[in-house]
Amino acid sequence: MAYLRFKAIDTINNRKTEPVTTPSNKISDFYGINVFGQDAMKKYISSGAYKALMAAIEQGEKIDPETADAVAAGMKAWAIERGATHYTHWFQPLTDATAEKHDAFFEVENGIAIEKFKGSALVQQEPDASSFPSGGIRQTFEARGYTGWDPTSPAFLMGTTLCIPTIFVSYTGELLDYKGPLLRSIAALDKAAVAVCDYFDKDITKVYCTLGPEQEYFLVDEALYNARPDLVMAGRTVFGHSPARGQQLEDHYFGSIPPRVHNFMIDFEIEAMKLGIPIKTRHNEVAPSQFEVAPTFEDLNLSCDHNQLLMDLMSKVAERHHLRVLFHEKPFAGINGSGKHNNWSIATNTGKNLLSPSSKPKENLIFLTFFVNVIKAVHDYADLLRCSIASAGNDHRLGANEAPPAIMSVFIGQTMTDILDELENNGNVKISKGDNLYMKLGISRIPELILDNTDRNRTSPFAFTGNKFEFRAVGASANSAWPMTVLNTIVAETLTKFKAEVDKQIDKGEKKEVAIVNVLREYVKASKRIRFEGNGYSEEWIQEAAKRGLSNVKTTPEALDFMISKPAIEVFEKHEVLNHKELEARYEIMLEKYIKKIQIEGRVIGDLAVNHIIPTAIAYQNKLISNVKGLKDLGLDEEAKPVIETIKEISKHTKTILTEVENMTEARKKANNMDNTKQRAMSYCYDVKSKFDIIRYAVDKLELIVDDEDWPLPKYREMLFIR
Ligand code: ADP
Ligand code: MG
Predict the structure, then answer these.
(1) Average pLDDT over residues 345-368
(2) Which residues contact 604 (CB under 8 A, 6 or more apart)?
(3) Which of 165, 308, 518, 579 has the most CB atoms at less than 10 Å from its CB?
């Protein structure tokens, strides 16, 4: 029975480190060669069309058919020269993966074979929308949807396919993807932020967001992975006793990277670099077999595309190295899970990072304005932000005494705490002639650099790290676009309100700077309870947060409610990011996704427990029974006693497993019969999922009892230490 497991161990003992070949020692020689970027565009499309395209991108205008035709022709020539045979609209439906449908350039026209790709095919396509989640928007007779070109994210080459980043819309015009709302939220933030920047600097005419996502992941050998049906089906281990050596030695973090893994990293980084993904850092993470990759930050939309692409690439390249990448938030119980830390900031067309303090007091008022507004936004919409990171996988991290808690809070460090305290206690400032305005306002002493590595709080879900905010609670497998969409939208709303309040004071005759500081002071006070500098994993924080009236929503079905709450619908509609119909559809889709995940886990648990674990336990128990009979034959009744105890112990656990699997199956049946999606999700969450741990406990106990030679599933100690 344990054949697969031992065959796998045998296989990995004979593994060799796969070689990698670097195209050149200089990254700049191959960086971006698979991207139809600025250089390629200039070379392959006429300067007139190029200018029209750039203008359209910068001003967010519609691209005329002639320009589209010219760009398509250039793209086609560029791609075919590089061996492309097909093109596809690459999009991000509300599943966990990206989608593509390949069409050949090749066509036969009047009996003559030609390679064709027109502007119309670049701009719009009609994939069969019926195979993607739509949350009830799409009627069956209207199964069409279409994809629309996003010219702000460059086309790229994957193998022999030209991939064109697009948004995905239902036939009736509702957004059914991650990119569409993200683009709208970026526009909303741009508008609101530029209006506020106008107080400080008339040259700021465009504001855009930046993102640098730090991606955590686990690696498992392919042979062991294939011997674990739970990893294959659910992406996480549903059983497995903790190894004798876990992360308690804390020796993995920043330790040396095993050669096999190292080569895998180099390999996927080369592929990523070719696609213009600016990979910057690689290192081990806290848990054994856990690693991290982080790019240099980029424009938010591009960075989200790049992260999706990178995850895809990593999975593909891993196969060459006989490895499997796990992006699940909690693939192994008892050791750290994986997140995707979203480092987010706002930058201007004048090259300024609005969340970066400067040495000049005058410039610091703009920094402080954006800094305080972000905190206020998180305070006012904490629930919506919590909802944006809700998933079945992330439930294992949030609120599970590890990684950021489910309570949203903001960490800002000692320096900024002091500054906000000073601002808060500053009273109503009267400015007289000759006063140093900024000194008087109490904002003259912000140090230029607050980047201090010791000043980091790893337990905070949302932390200021010197020149950006780091949304750490995002799950490793998530598409960053959704939490970023929410963040942009709520910050846009806060800035809009802020501007209105400042204007009101200015209209009443208040000096501009004083008006700004007055409103900031109110915001600092009003949002104070969201700030927390202590240990986010501690029991005290849970109690303290409750006292402060902060939400602590631990499960996905409950967190998702906020998406269709009144304030959420209002803010999304006001900023034209998503309408209520789109939100309701999204809500349905996310609930369904949650249900499916738990359903799959339940099935895997039932199957493994009943068909793999129970037979193994009984076979071993039979061995013990013969042993007892043998001992008794020899008159060794006393010696047989402990063996009999073990036999009973095995029976106890097998009985628990059989009973609870039965209960779980019944609970699933009951849940499946519920018409209401929310009710069904709640039932999966509370009635079905609650059996998982009980079953797991019994299985993990059996793992410790049953002869190692007989145990069918690769053990944690075998999976977690890569050789
Ligand atoms: P660490 O957090 O490990 O100390 P860094 O501060 O250098 O490392 O950056 C971590 C991530 O934050 C990187 O992906 C980096 O590109 C990103 N980052 C740095 N500055 C910004 C910014 N202004 N906007 C968005 N992301 C940023
Ligand atoms: Mg970090």
Answers:
(1) 91
(2) 229, 230, 233, 234, 238
(3) 165
The pLDDT tens digits of the residues spanning 252-284 come to 555 677 889 999 999 999 999 999 999 998 877
Start and end residues for every CATH 3.10.20.70 domain found in the chain: 31-177
Looking at domain 186-578, what is its CATH homologous superfamily? Glutamine synthetase/guanido kinase, catalytic domain (3.30.590.10)
The C-alpha atoms of residue 561 and residue 551 are separated, in whole angstroms, by 13
How buried is residue 242: exposed, middle or buried, by Cβ count under 10 Å (0-12/13-18/19+)? middle
Measure 139 CA to ligand 2 centroid, in angstroms.
44
pLDDT tens per residue across span 467-523: 999 999 999 999 999 999 999 999 999 999 999 999 999 999 999 999 999 999 999
* CA distances (Å), origin 323, targets 169, 290, 308, 328: 36, 13, 19, 15
Does the pLDDT of residue 111 top 90, yes or no? Answer: no
Q: Which atom of ligand 1 is nearest to the CA of 343?
A: 26
Q: Please name which ligand lies nearest the alpha carbon of 214.
A: 1
Instruction: Give yes or no for residue 353 CB within 6 A of ligand 1.
Output: yes
Distance between Cα 297 and ligand 1 center (Å) = 6
pLDDT in tens, 551-561: 999 999 999 99
- Encoded tokens for 155: 């086309």
CB 295 less than 6 A from any atom of ligand 1: yes
pLDDT at 452 > cutoff 70 = no
Asked whether residue 251 carries a pLDDT value surpassing 60, the answer given is no
**Model pLDDT for residues 665-682, shown as the tens digit of each residue:** 999 999 999 999 999 999
Give mean pLDDT, residues 525-546: 93
Atom of ligand 1 nearest to the CA of 344: 25
Token reading at 420: 């906000």
Judged against a pLDDT cut of 70, whether residue 601 lies above it is answered with yes
Q: Which residue has the tokens 């402990």?
A: 642
- CATH code of domain 31-177: 3.10.20.70
Residue limits of CATH 3.30.590.10 in the chain: 186-578
**Rounded average pLDDT over 622-630:** 97
What separation in angstroms does the CA of 229 have from each of 195, 262, 395, 713? 54, 27, 22, 9
Position in ligand 1 atom list of the atom nearest CA 347? 23
The pLDDT confidence band at residue 351, using thresholds 50, 70 and 90, is very high
Domain limits, CATH 1.20.120.1560, in the chain: 592-721
Q: Which of 223, 228, 291 is nearest to 254 (CA)?
A: 291
Q: Which residues of 185-223 are buried (b: 16+ CB within 10 A; e: fewer)?
A: bbbbbbebbbbbbebbeeebeebbbbbbbbbbbbbbbbb
Whether residue 141 is predicted with pLDDT greater than 50 in this model: the reply is no
Residues in the chain: 723
CA distances (Å), origin 534, targets 410, 418, 540, 545: 10, 15, 10, 11
**Fold of the 592-721 domain:** Four Helix Bundle (Hemerythrin (Met), subunit A) (1.20.120)
Residue type, 352: K
The token pair that represents 12 in the structure block: 């990995």
CB atoms within 10 A of CB 175: 23
Q: How far apart are the first and last CA of the chain?
A: 25
Q: What separation in Å is there between the alpha carbon of 461 and the centre of ligand 2?
A: 11
